[in-house]
Request: fold
Amino acid sequence: MQFINVFMLIGLAAVAIPIVIQLFTRKNARRIDWGAWMFLDKTMKKRKRKVLLEDILLLACRCLALGLLALAFARPFVRPDSPVPWAVTLPLFLVSITATGISFALWRYPMQRRMFFYGGLALFALAISTVLFERWLNLKRFGSGASKDVVLIVDGSSSMSIVSSGKSNFDRAKEEAKKYVENAPSDTGFAVIIGGPVPQVLNPVPVTDRRVVMNSIDRVQLAGGTMQIHGCLTAAAVTLAAGRGAVKQIVIIGDGQTVGWQLEDKNRWKTTERVFSTMKLEPVVTWRTLPLPTSIRNLAVSGIRPERDVVGTDREVKLNVTVVNAGTEAVTPRGVSLTAGGVRQEAKEIHQLEPGESQVFTFSHRFTQPGGTIVTARVESEDDLPADDTYRYAMPVAGSLKMLIVDGDAAAPRMSRASTYVSLALRPELVRAAAEGEGTAQSPREFLVETKVEEVSVTSGRNSFSGYAAVFLVGVRRLPAEVLESLAKFVSAGGGLFFMPSSAVDAELFGKWGDDKSKVLPAPLGKWRDAKSTLDPESFGAMLKKLRSGTDLRGVAPMRVMDFGEGYEPDAEVFAKLADGTPFLLKHHYGRGLVVASAAPFDPSSGLVSKRGFLPLVHEIAYALARPSAVDLDVRPAESLSLLVASGATGGEAASGNGLIGYYYPQPHYKGKPTVRVDGAVRFGWGGGSPMKDFPADDFSVRWRGAIVPPKTGEYKFAWRADDRFSAKIGKVSLKNNAPITLEGGKTYMFSASFEEDKGHAHIDFLWKPPGAERMSSVPSSAFLTRAAGVEGAGEVVQIADPHGETFYGEVFQGEEGLFLRISRSIIPGIYEVSEIPELVARGLAGALCPDGKLRISVSSGAEESSVVAIAQSEISDLCNYIQITQALKEDDVVNAIRGQSFGKEVWRLLACVALLFLVAEPAVARWIAINRRTGDILDTEDSWIRT
Reply:
């Protein structure tokens, strides 16, 4: 416990007033030897003890009244992280006052008087020492008079957009942040962090320049989502560690909402405690809580989800929009809308939502263009938190899903092959078109699936399955090892595989197919037998759940089935059985891809092909197989991002090749919009001409990016002849002309080079001398790669605009699974727009690009931030077990804290009220004592004398 007016504690000296009065009004006894009074001795001794208790009561009442008034004028306050509880300090003061006063009532009892008097003084000294100790500790922690580093964390969560009295809490937070900087001592260093789903550090090191700090505060923008306090505190600790101030302090300016603090997660708070303990001086956290309304009206769109995993242009798709009442009052939406493909739809059946209630609105829409698209849902309501009324969702729309059907039974009649029925089931419109006859004016309607039937002999010569979403191996007996390896890579990168065995299949070959960690097929192949049961739709799971009822597949009875062998893969799942429990369809994941295996081929002997349910059965399996190859353009907030934007299974590798990506800038110092092309060897003799048509011949600059693969291990020498300036890097090593460098053969290294031309002739020749070579030669195109899987920096630079419109640069690079977008900065909720995508990269991104040639991704967070619940005082007290945190209810409290002063919850009103009670009680007690005694004289017969 501390005191604002410490000097007012001198007022405790007023306690001596009733003591002095007691001493002066005490009458001296006059000894009279009168034997007649002896018989009253026992009666008067009892009277004496009663009078003594009355004096003690009256003196204690007067001393406490004055002591409480003095303490109240000193204005005590209690800090939540106080090392000495006020329930200890305050009683020490009151007990010491009472004991000291009582000691003077016991004037005629020396031993008891000394015991109470010195005991009261000891308690008073102990109380004063606790105050001084806490004051010294606060001065040490708050650093009064010492240089200080302060991190300002401005809460940028969605709830900060609540508007009251014409201003949002977010605007108030920025204004207060500026006030803290203006009123701080001149040697105080400041850093600014935007608190959101991920912290955005605007100043990595605390600075004392007020202009820089003010500029950072002006740059603070609403991040959206929920502020994750643990990440913000960790980022603040790292920032403070880089500062030079002796004292460290963190100031959080937020709305006091409990979401994001994760108070129940004790382990995370222990981790934060360990992070703080690693610092030389543990930082003090001051939490400035802005007011929150006690009642709130708030409807929020919590999500958009398509009904199907793969959305195409072939048919309508249902889009489910969830609206939740996250406020405390019942609200009826004025309208709920969905905008997709430029078409706006309004929901019809809308009812009142009680607090905590949600409603799902279903809209149907058919997309007409493939590629990436933004779907926007909005709820119309006059609520207090408009930030969550709109939800934007980025999703890819497939123009086609290419399926490769490998026919392993080409020698059999066409209408007895399983491949025939599978291909017709995937493209039923072709059957209708053929039935109308050739030359009809009506063309087949657009369909999502494109099929290619290929004989196994052709497949045996393949070295890549890139470009296909899924491969169907139908009746294939065996394949070359290199083809199986290529197909396994295809599946691992996100492709789908449907394996239908034949009676002559090489079970041993396919049983070993895979690697040491996992096999490609979900279970080993077994022996064939005659089937004795029918298909059981009640056992349908996974992708076939929709076919459990209302299907005519219940009576299907395959003629022969294969029993899978022992040793299922750990994640293998049976999602279709026969009525006797025999597995009919199995699935498991291999890498990012999905593999489905059947116990029988889908030919006439299976009994499936004549049923109406056969077509949806094959389609549901095909869509499930294609799903891993699709990309997800909706992500969660993160510190950084590596997002798969084009699966290797569907053509992400297509744009990779030999050579380097060249960025030709029309101005010096790499300024202006570059022209991008692929260059082979870096060997050009432009002379006085231009590198390309409509490009300047002078004052231009070029950058090359890609990778280099040395043919053998050893010492290399690189050199160049250039007019005017050239530089190159391999990995992170800057090359020096003719200087040796050791490289590992077959290893892929990031390569970058820069060239600048001033005036006159221009030429460049990049040379190397590999190990064992006799002389220098130009580095060939075969040593370069436009992209390389997993090599950071070997991709193409793209421009990105964040949700606030600020532009920065990212990289599109080739990974093992396809093309990735790398963003090396915090990702906040909103829409990110990628532009200036090189043409070669755009080819691989075609499935995700919007019609305008840009790539858009959405970053969305949960709707928990929409439920505004203030944190309780008891919860803040619990946090003091892990960090030194104090809640500031006024902005002046934060200013005082930054200046090195203490603050807390004042308790003087309570002391004043109690003092008033004692002041009222004192006359009543005095009057009662006077009436009870009936006279001002005291008769005392002790030792046979009388006091008058």
Observations:
- Residues 299-398 form a domain with the Immunoglobulin-like fold (CATH 2.60.40.10).
- Residues 433-445, 935-948 have pLDDT under 50 and may be disordered.
- The chain has six domains: 2-142+904-944, 148-195+202-217+226-279+871-898, 299-398, 401-436+444-628, 635-648+794-859, 657-786.
